[in-house]
Design goal:
The complex is a heterotrimer of chains A (524), B (451) and C (412). Helices cover 37% and strands 17% of the residues of chain A. By secondary structure, chain A is α+β, with helices and mostly antiparallel strands. The termini of chain B are far apart. Chain B is α/β, with parallel strands linked by helices. In chain B, helix 11 links the parallel strand 15 and strand 16. The chains are: A alpha+beta (524), B alpha/beta (451), C alpha/beta (412). Chains A and B meet through helix 11 of A and helix 6, helix 7 and helix 11 of B. Chain B: Keywords: ATP-binding, Helicase, Hydrolase, Nucleotide-binding. Chain B: This is AAA family ATPase.
């Protein structure tokens, strides 16, 4: 935790409510996100118990599995989920714009402009917490290799239609969620904790109810008290509480359920369902389970949308649209792969794919950190404290030129600052200049301030372009980090994986992984 | 491991043991049938000498080669050594297009050609560059041979980017120093043989376990007082010994001790090769002013007392001047604070840096600000063995550790709740164990100080 | 610590002789601990999970004392009005049992297959089959005796033996803890493998790393106990012709058996437990200091709940709280998932304004500033020594933050 964050948290403790950790919203928030609040059964590999899903906060769709061990009921849940989610996910596929990209023409070897299709917008999934993201990942993995009856008439337990396709999309979203700064699949706790510093620990912030209590406490109650109440309060363990005795007043946001709920309410209801002999008994028992599961889901659903409301109040950061565009590229790419009939994502990344993902995520992280600082003075303040940026007033500008045949302008600028950046000889610094970046290099520490030599942003001529050289009295902010970090070198194709990394994958393994063999006691 | 440490090596003198190991390595490199050869090189074992020699032998055998190093400083150092050792050998230095892309000392060698384009240098016997630059080279005939230097500090994905440029390679590195890392999580690939965040050597060996692995068995840098501790604590599977015996490396002071704690710890270090200057226990921020001043005071006294070093290198003892002393810290801000403190004491010219930047360098005497000094608890960063190993293995004569008391308690209370990734090889030595055993050892050379 | 590359040799124990490792509990200490827990109360059984959890927060004296004295921390937490938040859902319980039963079915045929696959140096069972001795008996002592007999036989038999739910005792600060591993497998070569059966899944070869870590620590506790039992069985004679004896019999790699992917089919994964073994040995050796902690308490301190006939605590709450507070704790948010008293300790920590209530890592940067109040006063400039880097950084941080929130900073 940075010192700035620590201080903010302590200020929250003193103030009794969360303090801002950002002045703008650093993630894209769709005008029409789809919320997914799942619950899973304890002790299973993510076997779903139920979920609320939808884009309309007032009309969620409830999906429940009355007996998670029953394959047909599970499949019905997955079919229902596909029915609810897939049209939304695919709904953005046809609204396209064209973008111009430079690609290397294979014949001439030159870079030529090419028109490429880019989806104008993309879906956004919101889940309550990190457990929800994991659940999406797990569901995606379990579904994407299944075969429907259409794909494989011999399959003993064919998946309902569209389930494998949903699996591919969920896997794509979950993998995209690993990219720093992406907004395709977001966890509300992560989103809120990015923008507010509470007076509790990061671990405790993973409780959505407690987090919201700090950020937006009820009138007349401090954030700390409200959070504690939401976290711990249970109905009294007495007859007066009826069937809710001992239950948490504010059910956990999942995917894990309150064990007391499992033991006292759910288990008997499921036993009743299992024991049902007639269709009427079964229907009643199922209705009961649906009610129970809904009672545990609804509070989390409300919390999630409350979080959306709070986030909408923040103005969007300047570079958020740029990062969302990358998410749109990612969406478009997956759309194209599905349309092209490519197989689902393999179970394990090969050496080249893994290396590519790591490198691109590192670039994304550097880009995210730079852009958040440029968009938000509060974030820039933390970078300044860490010695990675500095701001101050220009006290002197001395014109100078580079040596050599074509002398270029290299003015010396002195900046007085209270910051203490980690600069020494030759360190390059950058500042925003219009819609471009101006670079400079550190020359010396003087009593008057830091002396920099401008090395760019002044045009190609002998004289610097007007406005490109700061003047005395200007207030500037220089960063030690690049504003637009570039990606790394190209990596070999998987077919050309070198011997050091195991050589190319054997023939045929770049084709689809086989579906998991079905057994009698599958959970998902 | 099919290394070269047979029991009878122990009976050989260090020079012979090292020579035998080197011959075996060169034989594997020149005549072996495997595509790769791995050499573990403990601190000061003569890695650069080995690389230069291997390059020359390959070149002499008519086998042009490329050399991959990790930083520009390493590349320039290798080029310089190679050209100095063999002024007629055509050597290419491939460099970036940035300003000041290489050390101008290379321009003094007529046999060295520099260029930003690999094509300009093809055909030269040896072409050397950084992994980062090589990754952008394409459309060249692959080399038959390559030498990959500092292969344990190279990340797996960096190797992936350049491995297509060569057929066979000699991989040399120090397994005890800092591992490569990523600021982004890489847990989803932990346990996979091609985990891109693992070291190049671990990926190489995971896919090619039959490759010959050699070991340089002698450290010519570490004195007899240090090699056993460093070897036991940081190289449990690839032990090494000192190239010199007890008494071969000596420090002497022209000025007697003034009885102060810094002087007494210097006396201890001169005697035993190690000294621990222990400040009173207290929780302090990283740039603990008292500890920083203590470090600066020790350096100051080292210079003021006219310290001289006697070794096998020269007949007469040589003065330990500022350029022969270094201060090592865990964090950059600690290094900055020590630099300021030294400037205030009027002491210029002493290298002060973090472990990351001290890797590969050597000094007569080092002063180390212990990574756990003043901390209420230890984090994974502070317990990283590579960091402590680098800090404790830079010296030829003595190392003084400056630390606040309380480390034993901190280690004792350290929670062990680490996650375990299936399939991932467990890394030895364990950070906690290394901290503990070194602390126990250094405590025997403790000089307490109440400043 | 100089662990050899050969994974079959565990790192040597720091103590000389295994039995003499922990000093015998004196009668006085035993009485004192009984007094602390309540003379009518049986000691809360320390199982492997609890022992493994000793490593979670070794610096906490409160936990060390309560665990050492056999106090039921969950009951204590309920009695003082801060009940623990975690409990177990019966679904998890049922599932765990069902999977375990499946693994052990057919006299453990599946399990042996997994073992042979993992330890590729041992042969699969031939016509001699697999021995699955009956270990049932009444009472822990009898079960432990049965286990010892079965193990002795298994060591000399030239076949695979599977001991399901054996009972091994481990001397913990002078009192025996009865541990029940899931399975102990003895190969025809005389080597023992600890098998841990868990119901969390292994998907595509990977599993939740925190859960695997917990399983590894548990397995290490069993491995340690087994090693000591093996020493007692084999006695001091040296080994013949390289056959393993004593602690050398216990493989430093445990077998973790979990459901594979989304099915109920078991998959076995080897887990290297050398580090966990070293940690457990250290933690067990540290337990001896409960004597010192107990001695530091005020005269007459007890955690006795004085339960009524129906089990409810009758001891006044403020007395219990006072007793709990008489021994220091080391709270951090990680305690919430690991210790039943965490809610109480958290409220105290927050009440005193301790900075670690916000996270373990927070303390490091703040140096001598240990309370929220002192941090805020330092940041505001009204308190604190400017030469303390923590204070000057906090002041700078506060100024930068205020500037940013007031909208005064340039970003360009």
């Amino acid at each position: 935790m940075s010192l700035m964050t620590t201080l903010a948290r302590m200020e929250a403790v003193a103030a009794g409510r969360a303090q801002p950790a950002a002045t703008v919203r650093h993630r894209h928030l769709s005008a029409r996100p789809m919320a997914l609040v799942p619950l899973t059964t304890a002790g299973e590999a993510g076997a779903p118990l139920g979920a609320l899903v939808g884009t309309d906060r007032d009309a969620p769709r409830l999906l429940v599995v009355p007996q998670p061990r029953d394959r047909d009921l599970r499949f019905a849940f997955l079919a229902g989920l596909a029915d609810a989610v897939l049209p939304y996910l695919e709904g953005y596929a046809d609204g396209v714009e064209t973008e111009e990209r430079k690609e290397t023409d294979p014949e001439t070897g030159k870079k030529v402009p090419v028109e490429v299709e880019l989806c104008a917008d993309a879906p956004q999934l919101l889940v309550p917490g990190a457990g929800g993201v994991e659940f999406v990942r797990l569901l995606g993995r379990s579904m994407r290799f299944r075969r429907t009856a259409e794909q494989d008439p011999q399959a003993p337990y064919p998946a309902p239609p569209h389930v494998p396709l949903l699996g591919r999309w969920l896997t794509h979203c979950a993998e995209r969620a690993r990219v720093p700064g992406s907004s395709m699949l977001l966890s509300m706790t992560d989103l809120l904790a990015r923008h507010w510093a509470t007076g509790q620990s990061g671990l405790e912030d993973q409780h959505l109810g407690a987090l919201l209590a700090w950020i937006d406490p009820p009138v007349g109650e401090s954030g700390a008290d409200a959070a504690l109440r939401v976290e711990l309060e249970r109905f009294p363990d007495a007859a007066s509480s009826g069937e809710q005795a001992g239950l948490l007043r504010h059910p956990p946001s999942g995917p894990a359920t309150d064990p007391v709920f499992d033991n006292r309410l759910l288990a008997p209801a499921m036993a009743r369902f299992d024991a049902a002999r007639s269709a009427v008994e079964r229907r009643d028992a199922e209705r009961r389970i649906r009610e129970l599961v809904a009672s545990q889901l609804e509070p989390a659903w409300q919390l999630l949308w409350r979080g959306v409301d709070l986030l909408r109040k923040l103005p969007e950061g300047g570079h958020v649209a740029d990062r969302w565009k990358r998410d749109r590229w990612s969406y478009t790419g997956h759309r194209d792969r599905v349309r092209a009939g490519e197989p689902p994502q393999p179970k394990r990344d090969d050496a080249v794919t893994a290396a590519q993902k790591l490198a691109s995520r590192e670039t994304a992280q550097a880009r995210l950190e730079a852009q958040e600082a440029l968009d938000d003075p509060l974030v820039m303040a933390a970078r300044r404290l860490a010695g990675e940026a500095f701001a101050g007033e220009v006290t002197e500008v001395v014109m100078a030129r580079s040596e050599g045949r074509r002398p270029m302008p290299r003015p010396l600028v002195t900046v007085r600052t209270d910051d203490r950046p980690h600069v020494n000889d030759g360190v390059r610094v950058f500042r925003v200049l219009g819609d471009k970046v101006q670079s400079a290099e550190f020359v010396a520490y003087e009593p008057d301030g830091i002396v920099l030599r401008l090395t760019g942003g002044m045009g190609q001529g002998k004289e610097p372009k007007p406005g490109s050289v700061p003047e005395e009295g200007d207030r500037l902010c220089w960063t030690l980090f690049e504003h637009a970090p570039r990606g790394g070198p190209a990596l070999p194709d998987p077919e050309a994986t070198p011997w050091t990394h195991g050589g190319p994958p054997p023939e045929g393994t770049l084709v689809a992984d086989a579906p998991d063999p079905p057994t009698d006691e599958d959970l998902l | 491991m099919n290394g070269s440490f047979e029991p009878e090596d122990a009976a050989l003198d260090p020079g012979t043991a090292a020579a035998r190991a080197t011959e075996a390595i060169l034989h594997s490199t020149l005549h072996g049938t495997e595509r790769g050869v791995v050499v573990d090189s403990p601190p000061g074992a003569g890695k650069s000498t080995l690389v230069v020699r291997a390059a020359r032998e390959l070149a002499a055998a008519g086998r042009p080669l490329m050399v991959v190093a990790q930083t520009n400083a390493q590349v320039d150092d290798l080029v310089d050594r190679l050209a100095t050792a063999d002024p007629d050998l055509p050597v290419g230095r491939l460099h970036s297009s940035e300003a000041n892309p290489y050390d101008t000392v290379l321009d003094r060698h007529p046999s060295v050609r520099t260029s930003a384009k690999a094509a300009d240098l093809a055909g030269l016997d040896v072409v050397i560059s950084t992994a980062a630059k090589w990754a952008y080279v394409s459309n060249v005939e692959p080399w038959q041979h390559a030498i990959v230097d500092e292969a344990y500090q190279m990340r797996s994905d960096a190797l992936l980017a350049v491995a297509g440029l060569f057929e066979r390679a000699l991989f040399v590195g120090d397994p005890g120093q800092l591992d490569p890392f990523s600021v982004v999580g890489a847990e989803q690939w932990a346990g996979l043989s091609h985990d891109p965040s693992a070291s190049a050597v671990s990926t190489l060996l995971a896919h090619n376990p039959e490759l010959p692995q050699h070991r340089l068995p002698v450290s010519w840098r570490l004195p007899a007082s240090a090699a056993p501790l460093v070897s036991d604590a940081f190289y449990p599977f690839t032990p090494f010994r000192s190239g010199t015996g007890p008494g071969d490396r000596r420090l002497a002071f022209a000025v007697a001790s003034d009885g102060s704690a810094p002087d007494r710890v210097l006396d201890e270090a001169a005697e035993a090769g190690w000294g621990l200057l222990e400040l009173p226990a207290r929780n302090t921020p990283r740039t603990d002013p008292e500890a920083v001043r203590a470090v600066a005071a020790v350096v100051r006294r080292l210079l003021d007392r006219g310290t001289t070093a006697a070794s096998e290198r020269s007949e007469e003892p040589v003065p330990v001047t500022a350029d022969r002393i270094a201060v090592g810290t865990a964090h950059r801000d600690q290094a900055a604070a020590v630099r300021t403190a030294l400037a205030e004491l009027g002491v210029p010219g002493v290298a002060v840096d973090t472990a990351n930047r001290l890797q590969g360098r050597e000094f007569d005497v080092t002063v180390v600000l212990h990574p756990l000094s003043g901390r209420p608890d230890a984090s994974a960063f502070h317990l990283e063995t590579g960091r402590l190993c680098v800090l404790a293995s830079r010296h030829r004569h003595a190392c003084i550790v400056v630390c606040r008391a309380g480390v034993a308690e901190l280690l004792d209370e350290h929670p062990s709740t680490e996650p375990v990734q299936l399939g991932a090889t467990v890394k030895f030595p364990d950070g906690w164990e290394a901290m503990f055993s070194t602390w126990e050892f250094w405590s025997r050379h403790r000089v307490p100080w109440q400043p | 610590m100089n662990a050899s590359l050969d994974s079959r040799t565990p790192a040597p124990a720091p103590q000389a002789a295994p039995e003499a490792a922990l000093p015998r509990q004196t009668e006085a200490l035993r009485l004192r601990l009984a007094e602390l827990r309540g003379p009518e109360t049986a000691p809360y059984p320390l199982d492997a999970r609890a022992l493994a959890a000793l490593a979670a927060n070794p610096g906490c004296r409160r936990r060390a004392l309560l665990d050492g004295a056999g106090v039921d921390k969950a009951a204590l937490a309920r009695a003082i009005g801060s009940p623990a938040t975690f409990g177990q859902s019966q679904f998890a319980f049922v599932r765990g049992n069902a999977f375990e039963a499946r693994v052990g079915a057919d006299a453990g045929a599946e399990l042996v297959r997994l073992l042979v696959e993992t330890h590729r140096d041992v042969a699969a069972p031939g016509p001699e089959g697999v021995s699955v001795p009956d270990l049932t008996a009444t009472g822990q002592a009898a079960r432990a005796a049965r286990t010892r007999l079965a193990l002795t036989e298994a060591f000399t038999a030239d076949r695979w033996s599977l001991l399901f739910h054996p009972m091994v005792t481990l001397d913990v600060a002078g009192a025996p803890a009865h541990l029940e591993p899931d399975v102990v497998a003895v190969g025809p070569d005389g080597h023992c493998t600890v098998v841990e059966i868990k119901s969390f899944p292994v998907v595509d070869g990977s599993a939740d790393a925190a859960k695997v870590g917990a399983a590894a620590r548990q397995a290490a506790v069993y491995a340690l106990a087994l090693g000591r039992l093996a020493e007692r069985i084999d006695g001091p004679e040296p080994s013949h012709r390289g056959a393993p004896r004593g602690t050398d019999r216990i493989r430093p790699t445990a077998l973790l058996v979990c459901p594979r992917d989304f099915s109920n089919l078991p998959t076995g994964e080897p887990v290297d437990i050398r580090k966990q073994l070293a940690v457990t040995r250290r933690q067990l050796a540290r337990l001896t200091r409960i004597e010192e902690i107990a001695a530091s308490l005020p005269e007459g301190t007890t955690f006795d709940l004085r339960p009524a006939a129906d089990g409810t605590a009758t001891r006044p709450v403020d007395e219990l709280v006072h007793a709990v507070e008489s021994v220091g704790a080391s709270y951090s948010p990680e305690c919430l998932a690991a210790c039943e008293l965490a809610i109480h300790c958290r409220s105290r920590s927050r009440g005193s304004g301790a900075v670690e209530a916000l996270g373990r890592s927070v303390r490091g940067e703040l140096g001598g500033l240990t309370t929220v109040e002192s941090v805020l006063l330092a940041a505001a400039g009204t308190q604190g020594d400017e030469t303390d880097p923590a204070v000057s950084s906090l002041r700078r941080a506060a100024a930068l933050r205020a500037e940013a929130l007031a909208g005064e900073t340039p970003c360009h």
